[in-house]
Amino acid sequence: MEFIGHGGKKLVERVVTDKKEALNKIKGLKAVPVRRQLATEAISLAYGFFSPLEGFMKKNDVDSTCKNMALVDGTVWSIPIVFDISDQEIVDYGIKVGTSVLLTYEGNPLAIFEIEDIYAYDRDTWSQAVYGTTDSKHPGVKRTLDYKDKFLGGKITLINPPKFNPPFDQYWLTPKQHREKFGQKGWKRVVAHQTRNVPHSGHEWLMKHAWMATHAEMSMEETEEGHAITGVLVNAIIGEKRAGDYIDQAIILTQDALRKYGYFRDDVHMTSFTLWDMRYAGPKEAVHHAIIRTNLGLTHHMFGRDHAGVGTYYGSYDAHRIFNKIPKEKLNITPIFVVEWLYCPHCGEVTCIGLCNHKKEWQGFSGTVIRSIIMDGVKPPRLIFRPEIFDIVQECAEKYGFGSPFVTQEYLDKGTQAFRIDPL
After folding, report:
1. Which in 49, 52, 103, 376 has the greatest CB count within 10 A?
2. Domain residues for 323?
3. Is the Cβ–Cβ distance between 319 and 281 less than 8 Å?
4. Does residue 1 form part of some domain?
């Protein structure tokens, strides 16, 4: 079956699964070691998460992305996907346009990289275009400024697929596998919940709101148990961690627990993840998330308050407004815009700012307060944090986080990574 991805283009999948074929393809290739970020993006490129890209972007596409929020061919694109390299490494590895190299990760073969372009790009121009600022305190700008001297563009072919460590192995699906899974479930509509957090009740109601909006005009017969045709996909972001973030294991296991413990029916909810280091690009990253989820086969995508933002660089709903600038025919996914959900003691329930008129009594789901609740180890009220979720967070702290559900230096140094590349 031919799957169509973002931009109406055929879904990319450039993966060699036969070991003998892979060994033959890499004979005589110069090995170039890569860090984790480049390894994960090579994996995502090869499996089609970034379709229609077939590899790391060349200069003309980076330039067009920065100036027009589109690839050269007009396909909407908002964040450059690039391979950086130093001038000295270009000399050491004999990098030239028209040659291919073998990318390795932690000493093992990963992918073949066909070098089609070698170029430099102005970092301030890039930062202003993508992040709306050149302030080095912005994490995305800092990442851009820290890139090495040059960039390489060209196609990627994965020759040694990753192995996922528990518990991530339960939740890894390629774009094609996502689509096959949706077909098995009979889902005709699927709405994405993008997350890098453990869910509190506000997150849960965001998802329920998004499901209802996505399912809106369907008949009652199509909501009967076991026959749902609309689903919620929690697609967690697993990637670069900073001290104080939730540990990855806690994120993925607590999100799935909402289904496991009945807060969503089995036939309307599932959890998976995407390998991606957040750029915190606010509205531009919202578009990028829409692109990824289009490639996964989703029909709708929820966007909430401060989606993919950081600090005060973006307005609370800038990630909503950017979609007004994109012609509908250019994006094959429907945005679902949701406002903030909170707890109202007067109403005695979780509600949203678009409905409740007890503004002076509102109690927002402050990340700082939620974290202090978790660290105190005392179960909060059910209306704020589901008890099963709280228990799993504590279990993950002991099993994976060296005593903490939040990223520590020990977790960064010794924690189990989501994937590994075994010898070929």
Report:
1. 49
2. 168-420
3. no
4. no
Distance of alpha carbon 98 from alpha carbon 19, whole angstroms: 25
Look up the CATH number of the domain holding residue 152: 3.10.400.10
pTM beyond 0.90: the answer is: yes
Inter-residue contact 336 to 300 (CB < 8 Å): yes
Distance in angstroms (rounded) separating the CA atoms of residues 402 and 423: 29
Determine the pLDDT at residue 349: 82
Q: How far apart are CA 362 and CA 368, in angstroms?
A: 16
Residues ≥6 apart with Cβ < 8 Å to 229: 186, 187, 188, 189, 218, 222
* Residues 406, 310 share a domain: yes
Predicted confidence at residue 380, as pLDDT, reads 76
Is the backbone peptide bond immediately before 52 cis, with ω within 30 degrees of 0? yes
Question: The domain that contains 296 carries what CATH number?
Answer: 3.40.50.620
Compute CA distances 424 → 26, 39, 103, 109, 384, whole Å: 11, 16, 13, 7, 48
Q: Which of 236, 311, 295 is nearest to 271 (CA)?
A: 236
| Integer angstrom CA distances of residue 54 from 57, 202, 368 | 9, 38, 41
pLDDT of residue 225: 61
Strands 150-158 and 163-164: unpaired
Positions of the chain with pLDDT lower than 50, given as ranges: none
Report the alpha-carbon distance of residue 41 to residue 45 in Å, rounded. 6
The verdict on 331 and 387 lying in the same domain is yes
Cα–Cα distance between 269 and 202 in angstroms, integer? Answer: 17
Please state, as a whole number, how many other Cβ atoms lie within 10 Å of the Cβ of residue 12. Answer: 24
CA 6 vs CA 195, 290, 318, 378: distances in Å: 21, 9, 22, 45
Closest CA to 233 of 293, 282, 152, 183: 293
Q: Is residue 176 part of a domain?
A: yes
